[in-house]
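Training component of the fellowship. As part of building independent skills, the fellow (R.M.) carried out the full modelling exercise for a liganded target. The chosen ligand was zinc ion. The inputs are recorded below so that the supervisory panel can assess the work.
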Amino acid sequence: MIRKALSKKVKFSANWQKLKKKIARLHERIANARHDFLHKVSTLISKNHAMVVVEDLKVRNITKSAKGDLANPGRNVKAKSGLNRSILEQGWGMFVQMLQYKQTWLGGEVIKVNPQHTSQTCPCCHHVSQDNRTTQSRFRCVQCGYTENADLVGALNILARGHRVIACGVETLVLTMKQEPLGSSNTRPILAA
Ligand SMILES: [Zn+2]
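Fellow's submitted model of the complex:
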């Protein structure tokens, strides 16, 4: 009986090891693919932009809000489900690092700005309100009626903050705190998060 149980246990262990190896290989492949993708995107951006403005994001926050888990899926799961976006979010820290050293090589720069309310601020009249954000993808200012794609709005605000940093040396606007990814394309990091 014991021998039988033991043999079962050994067998289980072997399979478990096998499966564990398989999973590890899969993780490695995913990590490599992500790494490769982040390199391609950061290279492309660096080659075409002397100045890149990104939100100074706390990586943990993004992962938390976007991903959630099986029992409690994140609120933004659907809107953020684009593959590129998801890769960028998971690799955000690495991505910004790549951007920074590539910009340094090429004589450009990366400016990090306060991510607060970038998706809720009207680029037109500067009114800040959650209500400006009618849906994940739609922005409509409750004050002045300015309407635009929400990701683009986030991008405009982030870029404007970047310009303020350059002009003033410091970011003067300190109202905020919300991050929102920019578009489904690879340009997101230039514009928003
Ligand atoms: Zn407005």
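The panel noted the following from the submitted structure. Residues 1-7, 65-74, 173-193 have pLDDT under 50 and may be disordered. The chain has six helices and four strands.
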